[in-house]
Amino acid sequence: MYDLIIIGGGPAGITAGIYAHRYKLNCAVISDVYGGLVNTAHLVDNYPGMPEMSGMDMMKAWKDHAEKMGVQLKQTSVKDISKNEDNTFKITTGNEEIQTKCIILALGTQQKKLNIPGEDQFSGKGVSYCYTCDAPLFSGRDVVVAGCSNSAAYAALLLTEYANKVYLVFEKETMDADPSKVDEVNANDKIELVPSKTVKEIKGDMMVSSVVLNDDSELKVDGIFVEMGKVPSTVFTQKLGVEMDAQHFIKVNDKQETNIENIYAAGDITTSSGGLRQIITASSEGAIAAFTAFKKIRSGQ
Ligand SMILES: Cc1cc2nc3c(=O)[nH]c(=O)nc-3n(C[C@H](O)[C@H](O)[C@H](O)COP(=O)(O)OP(=O)(O)OC[C@H]3O[C@@H](n4cnc5c(N)ncnc54)[C@H](O)[C@@H]3O)c2cc1C
């Protein structure tokens, strides 16, 4: 019987693991991938003390830190969580069943899809959800970025290092990104803003050859990067009865407690930190969740 199982190995989960280990809890962090979404960040430039670091390098340093301290990391996917009669939990992974007193859900989010014709058909054939992974494949090509957030701005700016032309298509009249990023986008000659429009279809033969907009105009492009925001994973939360908001983010209090006893949540999957979903807030929530779990376990209730 573990004291605590942390599910998710992004900034929230790794930090929770480090704190729980220092509290001498019998604990493990389970994640299919370590580093989480930060692995896809080309450059992180807002984490204090680590200027201009690639997301991948940053998360390798975090994982190395946890491993060096002796935090138990289990690299596998969680398939199921069920509640036992005595208020403990059974966690099923691909290869074992684990019993634990407490859980921290730090599962993060996934990219929202456009859900339009051609999207699934051309996924990996011109449709991409990871600009840091795929931008170099579009050297000298024309591409679309769908979205208007910070991620969309970052995607468009990075793509200009490779692509010939980048269309930034978004439904709103103006972008939602940080003002400094909007300035950078506006100053870049390779980016053409296409506001007040949506992409309604992706066309091609073997690979993407164009996208159709909602006014039936067509942009001849070789790729489309989908940056429509993120959705939290609801696989376990619904089954366990964990309370969520209308967008399915887990509701927590300022101790990272959910409505279910002994289940805590941290990071992008929660409603915490005023909706600021960043490395620093995910990490902070992970630390608080581990602290709350520690106090609960020490109290012996
Ligand atoms: C392209 C991009 C650039 C970004 N740049 C910045 C930046 O510069 N600065 C900044 O502060 N933030 C940035 N962010 C945001 C930052 O990445 C997130 O806020 C942060 O990663 C959230 O951490 P998390 O631990 O909550 O979740 P995540 O990082 O999403 O980690 C969750 C982990 O849980 C794992 N998981 C999910 N389900 C299961 C399961 N069933 N079994 C096992 N494991 C599971 C996932 O695989 C993942 O590894 C960026 C995000 C993106 C996408």
Question: Hey, roughly how much beta strand do the residues contain?
Answer: 25-35%
Mean pLDDT equals 95
Largest sheet: 7 strands, mixed
Number of DSSP-assigned strands: 17
Please compute the radius of gyration using only Cα atoms. 21 Å
Structural class: alpha/beta
| Intertermini distance | 16 Å
H/E series, N to C? EHEHEEEEEEHEHEHEEEEEEHEH
- Count of helix runs: 7
Low-confidence stretches: none
Helix content: 25-40%
Quaternary structure type: single chain
Principal-axes shape call: elongated
Task: List bound small molecules.
Answer: flavin-adenine dinucleotide
Give a short overview:
This protein has helices at residues 11-22, 55-69, 131-134, 150-159, 179-187, 235-240, 279-299, and strands at residues 2-9, 27-34, 72-75, 78-83, 89-93, 97-105, 109-111, 127-128, 142-146, 165-169, 191-194, 199-204, 208-213, 218-220, 223-226, 230-232, 263-265. The protein is α/β, with parallel strands linked by helices and 301 residues long.
